Amino acid sequence: MTSPSEQPALTGTLIFDLGSDDSRCVEPPVLDVPPIPLDEVLGASRRSAPALPHVTEVDIARHYERLASTNFGVDSGFYPLGSCTMKYNPKINEWACRLPGFADLHPYQPASTVQGALELMWGLQEALAEVSGLPAVTLQPAAGAHGELAGLLAIRAYHTDRGDARTRVLVPDSAHGTNPATVAMCGYEAVQVPSDERGGVDLGALRRLLGTDVAAIMLTNPNTLGLFDENILAITAAAHEAGALAYCDGANLNAILGKTRPGDMGFDALHINLHKTFSTPHGGGGPGAGPVAVTDTLAPYLPGPLVARDTDGRFSLADPARSIGRMRSFLGNFGVLVRAYTYIRATGADGLTDVAEQAVLSANYLKVLLHEAWPLPYDRTCMHEFVLSGSRLRKEHGVRTLDVAKRLLDYGIHPPTVYFPLIVDEALMIEPTETESKATLDRFAAVLLRIAEEAAEDPGLLQAAPYTTPVRRLDEAAAIKQPDLAWRPSPDS
Asked: Which of the listed residues 142, 160, 302, 382 has the most CB atoms within 10 Å of its CB?
């Protein structure tokens, strides 16, 4: 395989480097009033002309098109980002959410004028209730972590109503980082539960930690190692015996669609990341959706309003009896909900089961291709994702998993998640999803195997990667601690 490091690096160009002093986007009309110099109007607030680029409209269009082409997404390449489920977003979803009857709605319209939108939301609530095995659903939370907050607040309200003062929430050591953060935001103490030798929750340790002060256990199943917890029924039963509730982080629901349901496992609450499972855009800071499904016991505490179907077949909004209140304005990110509903209806019940089967097959296929060259800490049949370790490369060649991730960029592949979960040394967390072809998986495996060879032949090659991206390796620690997000003109500008 030819190394991409010999290819010329892409270069970024500032918009200020384009055009000339005579370039302009528009030709202003001839003034029909006397001109007034700006410095007379602005006074001391403006001492010099603004540092604006002199470009034509064509320059601007090409500049931003060039910038857009450097951005990586599921439409431009393979994106095996473990835990994040970066699956292809079918374009029919985009068509549906742009229909005028959906796109042109106003949030203050009376319910009588938006019956179609309310029916869609009601249908989505019903579909998510069926998929999750939990009867009551709110669509309001704007993201998975937001859904976690809503679910745990509902659990707290439940205990408060019973006069049951509980102070701790148990969280496995393989949990998403949002779990302990949510616990703290809800006023509880997060207590870590260790994993056993098979990568599941240590059942003995869990039972020793459970007590009358435990409000809930929060866990993901399948977990962040990509493993289905074989003791899940015993885990939820133990929590219930202690008077605690069981919360499921729904990040990995994509792996079990049509096969099993969190409600049937004994969970009381679940958030559903629509972008991970139901093919809506992942966000990147933009609009998302994290619906929450709960048992009938927790249903009165859900954030409202919910969509209800009246006896006459019409749809209305109603707040649960003891609602924890709104989690956000209006009814959530409606365009995202339309996309998810479209995906569910287009895929169908059998199709959703096929999604899980194909996702699990893809992950296990890749795992078999890679595990001999890359250590596999938990050598079990995985679900939708699996975690390799780059510890051998670090010990033998001084190459870190971060170096591997940077080198993958040179091959046009977005890196998997690295250094998570924390219980795996030099973790490389891979999720191929069900939407990728066998040819893509084969190429990815070949690239990772080639990178392992490169690490042995020339460690410095990886340690200096990437070579073909618009910018080379950045100081990511400094970028986090001292972000500099503003461009400043030079003194000569």
From this structure: 302
Beta bridge partners of 216: 169, 245
Give the whole-angstrom CA distance, residue 278 versus residue 69: 26
Single-letter amino acid, residue 288: G
Q: Which amino acid is at 133?
A: G
Q: What is the mean pLDDT of residues 68-95?
A: 91
Strands 136-138 and 168-172, sheet pairing: unpaired
Closest CA to 276 of 145, 96, 460: 145
**Which CATH number among 3.40.640.10, 2.40.50.320, 3.30.2350.10, 3.40.50.1980 corresponds to the domain 91-346?**
3.40.640.10
Report yes or no: 382 and 226 within 8 Å, Cβ to Cβ: yes
Query: Using only C-alpha atoms, what is the Rg of the chain?
Result: 26
CB 390 within 8 A of CB 401: yes
Question: For the chain, what is the total number of helices (H) and then of strands (E)?
Answer: 17, 12
d(CA 484, CA 493): 20
The pLDDT value recorded for residue 52 is 84
pLDDT at 492: 59
When pLDDT is averaged across residues 183-201 and rounded to a whole number, the result is 96
Whether pLDDT at 35 is above 90: no
* Residue 322 contacts residue 302 (beta carbons within 8 Å): no
Please list the alpha-helical segments (H only) found in 210-319.
232-241, 262-265, 274-277
Are 91-346 and 353-480 in the same CATH fold? no
Query: Where along the chain do its domains lie?
Result: 4-69, 91-346, 353-480
Angle at 94 between CA 89 and CA 97, to 5 degrees: 130
Residue the block writes with tokens 């042109």: 104
**DSSP code at position 433:** -
Provide the pLDDT confidence category of residue 233 given band limits of 50, 70 and 90.
Answer: very high
Going by pLDDT thresholds of 50, 70 and 90, the confidence category of residue 195 is very high
Do 148 and 175 meet the contact criterion of CB atoms below 8 Å apart?
no
Helix %, strand %, coil % for the chain, to 5?
40, 10, 50
Calculate the alpha carbon distances from 101 to 120, 316, 346, 465 in Å.
Answer: 12, 18, 19, 49
Q: Which two tokens stand for residue 65?
A: 């098109």
Yes or no: domain 353-480 corresponds to CATH 3.90.1150.10: yes
The token pair that represents 329 in the structure block: 């304005």
The three-state secondary structure class of 121 is: helix
Given a contact cutoff of 8 angstroms between Cβ atoms, the answer to whether 323 and 150 are in contact is: no
Helix (H, G, I), strand (E, B) or coil at 428: strand
Write out the two tokens for 374.
Answer: 């890359």
Q: How far apart are CA 416 and CA 420, in angstroms?
A: 10
